[in-house]
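Dear U.,

For the methods section draft, I wanted the exact inputs and outputs in one place so we can describe them consistently. I've listed the two proteins in the order they'll appear in the manuscript figures. Please don't edit the token lines directly; just add comments below if something needs changing.

First protein:
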Amino acid sequence: MENLADAFLRLDRKDISLLKAIERGMRHSEWVPIEDVIAIARLSPKGASTGLSRLVEKKLVSRTTEPYEGYQIGFAAYDLVALSDLVDRDVVAFLGDLLGVGKESVVFEALGSGAPGPDEPGAPPNRDEPPLVPLAVKFHRQGRTSFKHVRRARDHLRDQPRCAWIHAARLGAAREWRTLKALHPEVRVPRPVALSHHAVVMEHVGGAELYKVELEEPEPFLELILKEVASAWRRGIVHADLSAYNVLVGEDGEVVIIDWPQAVSSRDPRAQELLERDVKNLLDHFARKYHLVVPHQEALATVVGDDGGGRKEGETGWVDRILEG
């Protein structure tokens, strides 16, 4: 498919309405009946048919005729639906180059206000136009490979046995958004800006992945990272997928931890095991690359401190509510 920004510019309002209608319909049907598309998009049958044919030709929409005429979208069109919403809300003004492609996400650089969208908590009622700031737009892809595998591995999908694969990404994005909101600014994570469908907009922090960096003095950086892991633990959250691939090292010597869709509450029965794995992944990287050997239990003790079980505010389960929405 063509570049995402180019594809967006080539769409008109009717195209966007049709894509949004199919996306809404796919919450209940794998293939959305033509009658439902027409009703949701509020278009005439002729207008909808013409628009759908054009979107099929652009390979943004797939069509079936058996056992009924139905339509579905994939991630390329889903990205456009989210991008349209972010543009309408004045969150994103310009979409730039691709920053990275992972197994479960693609990330683009962008320019935008850096402020919450009008329907996000914290948005001022009457904003003057703020200066544009560098942003990163992360489109989640949790359902792209095997939805059944993703469902087994993700807490937020366990109670959604019929959740369409396209909405696995939406739920993953919402989980990461809530986690960033819970951690920032106490923990060095990207500042969350906005959420739309399966896209999370955050500040573009820059820096390079830890595995790409050659550190002259690795030990202070390991201490910095463990300090951030400890801060998250005190907030009652475990990253659960931490490695040298999702720690960014900036030119200022600071570290930022990214990619939080798998985060779990410290109340989770697997929390201690996942925390130990996170710490082990870091120690293994520094031992392999820099021959810096730190005993696992010693490093783990610096993370958990005296409370061993992460921060808990009475029996309120505040972190669990945040992560589960």
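Second protein (the one for the lower panel):
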Amino acid sequence: MHVARTLKKRGFTLIELLVVIAIIAVLVALLLPAVQQAREAARRSSCKNNLKQLGLALHNYHDSHNQFPPGAIYQPLTPGGAPENGRDARWGATWVISLLPFIDQAPLYAQYDFTQIARTGNGTPLTANNLVTRQKLVSMNCPSHPAVNTFLTQDFDGFAKGNYAASTGAGGTFNRNDSRNTQTRGLFSAVEQFGGNFSDMLDGSSNAIALGEIINVDSGGDDRGAWGWASGPLFSGRARTGTPERFLTPNSNDIDCSPYAWNNSTARPVNLRNNPDCTGANAGTGARSFHTGGVHFTLGDGSVRFISENIDRTTYLNLLSVADGQPIGEF
């Protein structure tokens, strides 16, 4: 006689489930840093490519105009007549505005009225430069940088922010003497309404910084990165004068001194800080990024280099100064 036996299906015990969950948690903990590193590597690559495209755009502009665009234009256009004041209401187009046709933004460029000041916002499309400066340009934002949606609203509402800026040299951003001094002059100047050319890079185009990364913050009173406003897309090597002078190497822990500042001296990371009390012609904004270890820069020859935040200060200032006659060597 055959006796049928019922087989009882056995499930997982609580201990077995906990062990499996623990193993999965360990695997996730091991894999997560690798995934994050891969994502950041992709973001860094995209950020580098953005600067590469801006470098190509500068070269194309140079081919058309025999020089690079001026750091900013002052209205009315009077050579040498721009003030050493990044808050002056009569600032006009920036180098980014001039470059729009060369970064696939010809329709935006066509809307901008170069005869008007940048703070023009309530007129027709021909005079409403606000319609242009409020646009958030993907090509001006580094994917590694946390998203910032706040416009520069100090005195005027209408300037979107980005993460790329042009070098005004080793001195102060709006210092006229620094813009004229071969030991400190950069490839761009707002106060001189100047954009250099290849012949100005006496140290060699591969030894001259043209563009670099900067940070911006969610504050309407902070101008850093506001690519349509004169002081927004510019950086320099000096934070401020004094005893001792303060210089801004890549990712410096020193405080930025831009014309409009959010006055936060306790921000973390510390390189977000900006102090309105040290603004003026001798002050400036430094090159900064959210990348570990350094900042991307576009050189005069169009190449992009990742420069360590531990670079020797003198070497870095020599890279910002395009005609100081100082040999650079490896950096």
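Candidate sentences for the figure legend, describing the second protein: Residues 17-320 form one domain. Helices lie at 14-65, 95-99, 106-111, 130-133, 176-180, 313-320.

Thanks,
Y.
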